[in-house]
Structure formats: C-alpha cells, structure tokens
Amino acid sequence: MARIQIPRGTQDILPGTVEQWQYIEAKAREHFRRFNYQEIRTPLFEYTELFQRGVGETTDIVEKEMYSVKNPRSEDQLTLRPENTAGVVRSYVENKMYGSPNQPTKLYYIGPMFRHERPQAGRLRQFTQIGAETLGSSDPSIDAEMIAMVFRFYEEMGLKGLRVDMNSVGTREDRERHRTHLLAFLNDIRHELCEDCQSRIDRNPLRVLDCKVPKDQELTKNAPSLLEHLSEESAAHFASVQKYLTALGIPFVVDPRLVRGLDYYTLTAFEIKMAEIGAVETLCGGGRYNGLVAELGGDDMPGIGFAFGVERLMLALQKQGIELPVKTGIDCYIVVQTPEAKEVAFTLVDQLRRAGVAAEMDYLDRKMKAQLKAADRLTAQYTVIIGESELANNTVVVKEMATGEQKEIAAAELVNVLRK
Ligand code: ATP
Ligand code: MG
What we know:
By secondary structure, this protein is of the alpha+beta class.
C-alpha cells in the first residue's frame, strides 16, 4: 500500500524535540503567572464570520489563508482559527468577563493556529502561537508592560540582539486625517507599485506601507507618516509608552512604517525582530485594538495583545546556538537475569513509580548485557541489577551510573533509597 504522508506545512514533534516544546510552554506559563495573566482556551474552530469581522476582510489572513468548512447538515461556515485574538475577545464578551471584579482582564493562550500559506522555514500551515491579551485598560503602562513581558521572556530563553520596533497608528480619527494625504501620495505613484498594492490603495491604503516588495518600499519611503498626524492625546499616549519602556531599559526604535491596517487597531503597534531567522525575521507581533471589542458586539472596551510563534522562537534559539536545559532520561532501570527476577522487577518498578521515580525494565527478553545497554541509552541515573544470587538473598545491586559506585541492599529498601 502506498504510504500516506504528513500534510504540507505541518510537522510532527517527536520525542527528543518535544521536550524543548514542553520546556518553552512551562516557562511561558510561569512567566505569565508572574505578570498576573491567566490562561484561556478557546475552540480550534469558530464561525467564519468571527474572523471576517475580527481579523478583517482586507487582510491576507481572511482573503487567502483561512481553512474553512461547512458544518455537515447545516449552512454554518466554520474556520480553523488563524489566530486567537478574535476568539479570546469573543469569549470575553460572551462570558461577560468585563463584569469580573479583577480588572483589567489579563489572559494568555498557547496553541495551534492554521493558515494556508506557502510553507518555508518559520512559516507553516499549522503553527503554534503563544500570546496574551489585556482587556479593559488603555493605560500606556499596560502597552509597555505587554512589550516588556515578551521581551523579558525572550531574554529568559537566552536570546540576544533583539529589536523592538514600535509605532502608533493613532485613533480612527487620526487615520482619517492621514488618509487624505496618503491617498494623494499613493495615487501619484500608483502605476509603479506592485499589483497587490494598487488594489490596496483602494481598499486599505495604510497596508501599502507594509508591502514586502523592495521596490515598493523604496517608492513609499517618503510617504506621509501617521506619526505627523496624531492628535495631541494620541501623541501623549505614545510618548508615555516610550517613557515606561525606557524606564525598564527595554531597547526600542520607532518605525513610522509599522502598521496594522485595520480600523479597530489603535495607538501602539509593535514587532520584535531578530536578524534573519530562516526566511523571516519577525518573532512577535502585537498592538492595541481599542475598537475590536465593539466590532465583535461588546461594549466599547479597550484591548491590547501580542502573539509569537513557537516555531520561530525555536529557529531563533538554534540560530544563536542556545540549548535549552531540558531534562531527559530516566531515574532507574532494573536489569534482570532470570524470569523469576523479572517478576520481582515488575513489582519494584510499580513501587518506584508510585514513589515518583521514573523507572523502566526490559520487555523484550533481552540478555543482561543488552539490558545494560538499554539502561545506558536511556541515560538512567541508577541501574538496579537482580541476578540469581540477589534473587536468592532478596537483595538488589544499585549502581549509580555517574560515579560507578555500587552497593547491595535489601530489595525492600530500594524504594526508600531512590525515592524522590
Ligand atoms: P508574517 O508577516 O511573518 O506573515 P504576520 O503578520 O502574519 O507575520 P501575526 O499574525 O502578527 O503574523 O502573528 C504573530 C506571530 O505568529 C508572527 O510574528 C510569527 O512568529 C507567528 N506566525 C505567524 N504566521 C506564522 C506561520 N505561518 N508559521 C509560523 N509562525 C507564524
Ligand atoms: Mg502572515
């Protein structure tokens, strides 16, 4: 029979690598706990309309990257989540979290997202995001805390040379003022821009500034900047975010071209970058979205969030030669000489495991020598040997592999000796 392969743009995370994932996830949970964020888990699929409204009709995600299906036996359209902000905000509104006495609402998530993209290094069709959202405060200290929270996490992972790029995209009103100037500028160079950008001019001109085509970037180098069109209040908010970041010693640069092109994105936008990780350099993206909760049917509540890809984080770690201190191997392997000894071993591993010891034995009827090799391969800290004489004396030989030190003890004492 022909073999069936894994779908393009997905990956199996196998033992040997999965420990790194577990390490990162555990570190992230601990990190978020310190910042008083609580985990939220939303479904892997939502009604398609949530993303149409919550991510935006004119985004790459909604235009070409969503995996959608019809609900069997009904007309409902469902979509595998391409990101988790929309789901979190839907849940915030639906569960009236704004009514909880603990405000602002601070949430984080860890899980798979799905986008139909052209797969390459750091760009998959199923990938894992770790992200956070704060709802109910538009205070600039929250913006700075969010940026600092990701930055400190990367620091803790050991990454160096990271860059925070940030910008303010203002309020809806700020952008409307800016738009007139931007359109005049873009219409003059319309026919020199890439095809995508020509249609962006009509649908969402701000996104032209986000175009990855080098020629377009050059052409729009002197486009009117949003920063020059911020209201006094928006400018003060941005200045305050920068002041807080400076107080924490977080390095950042203001990039007036960094945009999130949708109406409900407001004020602070940011990205964290590292020079060249595979085909990409952006590790993390985030920003404020004071219009999103209302867009999804809630009251007018401010919000801000970020998300980063775990696969890209792993690439970055690899690139910088950082090895995570993951623990592998087992505590103890019991080697036996005879079938009778195996019966003793079988009850001993049970006792050890109940006492918190990671214990293993042979299930393949291997000779003692092969069992010792197996113990070695599993990097067992202790090897316990039950030979014929030990079996006769109700004893076991315990060998500490690191030191080679070895002693014979009563079998009944084994659990106490190795207990964690
Ligand atoms: P890009 O410009 O790289 O496509 P994006 O703007 O689509 O990024 P966001 O939607 O802001 O990215 O997602 C935040 C983060 O999630 C990215 O910085 C990246 O780390 C990760 N990410 C996004 N799409 C993918 C993907 N297809 N594969 C792996 N990671 C991804
Ligand atoms: Mg993308």
